[in-house]
Amino acid sequence: MGFIDGMKAFADGAGKKAKGNYDVVAMNARIAKLEKEMSRLYLNIGQQYYALYKENPAENMRGSVEEIQRTEEEIGEVRKQIVATREETAAVTFHGNVSLREDARFCPHCGGNLAADALFCTNCGKKLEDE
Q: In this structure, are residues 11 and 4 in contact, taking their beta carbons and an 8 Å threshold?
């Protein structure tokens, strides 16, 4: 085998190796995408289970359900703190003529500013309960 033939063989081998590596990367990317979709489906199953059985979960799920309920309560408390903090600071005046409205409203879900007649929060999109 001559020098040119050796270079061709090397180039062919390198090309096959590169294509193989590319194919493996593409397959790993496909696996990652499928695993992400599977995780989304597992999450959906868990959310559906929780919605259906949170009042009477299977014994092996009771601890997780109780932890979710404690977390939901904590989130509710923090949201109340956000609203209270926003309300406390709503009438704060600054140096000069600038101040916030005294009738300012804030979303109980995210703490975003609300228009006086808002039915939904423009920040998080949640429906606002009648006050």
A: no
Q: Strand pairing of 113-114 and 105-106?
A: antiparallel
Q: Residue 106 belongs to what H/E stretch? A: strand 105-106
In this structure, what token pair is assigned to residue 27?
A: 């397959």
pTM value is 0.54
Nearest CA-CA partner of 64 in 41, 45, 78, 79: 45
The helix-helix angle for 3-53 and 62-90 (nearest 10°) equals 80
Question: For residue range 72-131, what is the model confidence (pLDDT) as tens digits?
Answer: 999 999 999 998 888 888 766 655 544 455 667 788 888 888 888 889 888 889 998 865
Cβ neighbors of 90 (< 8 A, separation 6 or more) are: 100, 101, 102, 104, 106
CA distance 65 to 31: 31
